Amino acid sequence: MDVLAAIAVSAVVLGIAYHYWRDLVMARAAGVYPYQRGGAMLSEAEARFLQTLKLAVPKRLLVCPKVRIADCVTVRKGLNRTTERLALTRAAVKNFDFAVVDEVTRQLVVVVELDDEPFVTRKARRREEFIAGACEAACIPIARFRAAQSYDANEVRTVLVSAINAAKVGNGEVPEPQGAVCPECNGALVLFVVQAGVLKGCSVWRCARRPACKGYVLNRTEPPHLHGV
Ligand SMILES: [Zn+2]
Fold it and tell me: Among the listed ranges 27-41, 147-161, 178-192, which one has the minimum average pLDDT value?
């Protein structure tokens, strides 16, 4: 009986060892870069919607498809390492469908989600919940659209503006604007209310070194980017 048990244990151990050895050989054979070029970067529905989204925003706004959430948010300071790592990983493995970025200030203006169907699967619901929670926590405006055969640029713009208006401004702990430095020279900013043009009435944080430096950050509590388009 003991002999049989010993044989059985040896067989299991040998089986496991063989399994690891085979994996190792295959990994070696695949090389360091076992990659091949992927297929289309966007689904047909995403590509179709992107055409209208580009028309719905002013030229100075850049529409970036498939942006990692981790590229749009940072993790709050003061958390323990495990919580921080978990939060980072969760944000790193998920994408926003589109992120709309101001080319001049390089700031995120609004994120856009294109939903194919109601969130039927558990995975889809969890992704949707995570995105909603992350955006609310980070005060990022989010606009959602249902996939369709065609879209109206004016309607898309209206949804974007209301999403920006609806986003909560923050809890007061975050100074306005983010980081509170000039994007061009890292200098101080002063609040300025625009007197004319498409941004009339909107407040803008301008570089204190103006006119030597033309850097500025739009007040994120207002959607001036979409006025007068
Ligand atoms: Zn400056």
Answer: 178-192
Distance 186 CA to ligand 1 centre (A): 6
Cis geometry, peptide bond prior to residue 211 (ω within 30 degrees of 0): yes
Strand (E) or helix (H) holding 203: strand 203-207
Q: pLDDT tens-digit profile of 39-82?
A: 999 999 999 999 999 999 988 899 999 999 999 999 988 889 99
Q: Which residues contact 29 (CB under 8 A, 6 or more apart)?
A: none
The model's pLDDT over 123-174, given as tens digits with 9 standing for 90+, comes to 888 999 999 999 988 889 999 999 999 999 999 999 998 888 777 554 333 3
DSSP characters over 86-144: HHHHHHHS-EEEEEEEETTT--EEEEEEEESS---SHHHHHHHHHHHHHHHHHT--EEE
| SS3 (DSSP) at 62 | strand
Tokens for 36, please give them.
């091949």
Are residues 168 and 136 in contact, defined by beta-carbon separation less than 8 angstroms? yes
Residue ranges near ligand 1 (ion) with Cβ within 5 Å: 182, 184-185, 187, 207, 209, 213, 215
